[in-house]
Amino acid sequence: MSFFQDALAMFKKRDLLFLESYKESEDVYTFLFEKENDLNWIAGQHGLFTITHKKIKNKTRPFTVASAPAENVVRITTRISENPSEFKQAMLELKQGMKINMTGPLGSFNPEDNSPSLLIAGGIGITPFRSILKQIESEGNGIKKPIQLLYLDRNKSFIFKDELDAIANNPSISVTYLDSRDDLYQEIDTFTTINKGDDNYFIAGPKSMVTSIFDFLKSKQIPKKNIKKDAFYGY
Ligand SMILES: Cc1cc2nc3c(=O)[nH]c(=O)nc-3n(C[C@H](O)[C@H](O)[C@H](O)COP(=O)(O)OP(=O)(O)OC[C@H]3O[C@@H](n4cnc5c(N)ncnc54)[C@H](O)[C@@H]3O)c2cc1C
To answer: Model confidence at 232, in pLDDT bands (50, 70, 90)?
Structure first.
């Protein structure tokens, strides 16, 4: 999506009806909202979500839409600690029938062409990749480009693991679960060696992790234009 499309999308605001929430793991929650027929996004995009059911100070956060458009529901999946921010406390208080406001969709975090793609997720940074891979799954086995997902979580708390394992039955898609940064760098090395040329890289997760992987890729002479990043602040 171009800068101008993103600028236009900033004016697209709508209320979404809250449906339900549930825990994915000890401290990760999913929130589902109704997808109206005229709401569309490209897998991997995010929205700006604003709390409307109560008055809080910082009432807006960017979140990836973690569902694929084909799933017909808007999903936010987020980490919520024991002492949540006012925003996340308000999310926990959502009840059926309440609404959240969404601006967007925004961004261009999506593998568009037929080049091999390496998707690198750190912890909660798995959300855009869930959406992207779910969309590919819903479109059938027609993809030709190899896609490899490297999913790093130091605590081995791999949310969406069952879904990702099912998606990895597609011969063009592989998923590797990792719990150490060294192993991650080794896997990246292998991928860059095999695919150097028209390969694309997507990194999502906590900002510090995204920055260090971006620097590592640059040190391997991967051109900046082949690397896309979704850096999550606040982790
Ligand atoms: C494109 C995008 C997609 C995202 N998708 C997800 C997602 O799918 N799931 C998810 O859990 N999170 C996602 N995030 C991160 C999310 O927006 C929140 O920042 C995060 O969940 C922490 O929120 P919080 O309310 O717990 O903490 P916050 O109160 O927001 O932040 C905690 C700390 O981070 C600092 N901080 C917050 N925002 C910024 C900023 N913009 N620049 C510098 N410092 C900042 C604050 O000062 C504070 O110290 C995404 C962020 C981006 C940019």
So the answer is: very high
